[in-house]
């Protein structure tokens, strides 16, 4: 299980306007997600995004949406984001590894991670890029995901795994993001 630029995709799950205000530590989650997304974009990792019932929960929060220019955003009512359109996009990108960020950890993130693991994908979750309304639900979800073989990691580790070498052309760009 190894992260590489040519076999990894990141999916932003349901970081939405009407959901975010009720989430624990949402501000930090958005801030860390922005750092990760900027680093992934510098490295060239493809991004996808979902919105859970945007008519009721609103669209992706502006701070994240600004980084999703040209990124396909799929609407859903299913809790799992492993939609046919997402599967198709992952196949198109030859993804073996998926980095998941978003909300809520114990609902959409958990169901997505479990579905992707069942499909044989390697799943990575930076712990600071997900949250739930109740911190205990986030902790429980991360435990369940780890038990299913999901790698619970952090922004800095994932970015440096993808770089692999201080001589990578965007090393300086990425290292400035995480200081």
TrEMBL record:
InterPro entries: Isochorismatase-like_dom, Isochorismatase-like_sf, Isochorismatase_domain
Coiled-coil intervals: none
Pfam family, one: Isochorismatase
Isochorismatase-like domain sequence ranges: 8-156
Superkingdom to which the source organism belongs: Bacteria
PANTHER family on file: HYDROLASE, ISOCHORISMATASE DOMAIN-CONTAINING PROTEIN 2
Name of the molecule in the record: Isochorismatase family protein
Native source species: Neisseria zalophi
